[in-house]
Amino acid sequence: MRVLLLGGTGEARALAARLHxxxxxxxxxxxxxxxxxxxxxxxxxxxxxxxxxxxxxLRDEHIGVxxxxxxxxxxxxxxxxxQACRELGLPYLxxxxxxxxxxxxxxxxxDTAAAEAVDRQGFSRVFLTTGRSGTAAxxxxxxxxxxxxxxxxxxxxxxxxxxxxxxRGPYHYDGENALLREHRIDALVTKNSGGxxxxxxxxxxxxxxxxVVMVARPPLPPGVTTVGTVEEAVTWLHSxxxxx
Length: 244
Prior knowledge:
single chain, 244 residues, alpha/beta, Rossmann fold, 2 domains, 6-stranded parallel beta sheet, oxidoreductase, Cobalt-precorrin-6A reductase, precorrin-6A reductase activity
């Protein structure tokens, strides 16, 4: 069994480590983050060229199973992988970490809707943690933003009033609490990424009674098989379904 592991997440690295060296795994990274944390085993970096390119690559590399452990908001590669596997009759699994409970958050469907919520609610000092691709929607906002991202966003996509904080998790409660207080934050904007690596900001916001605007996850393609943990993915791969 040769497995393509669509990765870039901590779960993908953990799964690659669990399978190596007993399973022939190729981990694929999008290549958007400089100096990424690499999984063990074989790694390819870069896109596939849409559904057609991915379908041909899967054929050329004699892939028997695809596990998609990309970020929950990497909707394009997930849609492409689901379609390519369906057309080729390959088993396809999505490993998606459980979403956060939004609790009292203002739940919206997109970055644009989040920006509209910020303006509608009259928030003035916003902690924006939607990633470098999520800043453009806030470019015309009158609020001030503390923007945290792994890599710098396009300058043209930045709000007029902001402070850019380049950082990579994991983050911890004490640090997040201090950050919110230091910058007098009155709203947190985040994507529902799930997991523990960046959850502390939600706990700190709750402790300080800071409202949260949360972008909901994009829906998965219909009919795909999903699991929420690395252990479940390993079990699936070693089951008859994973080998079919």
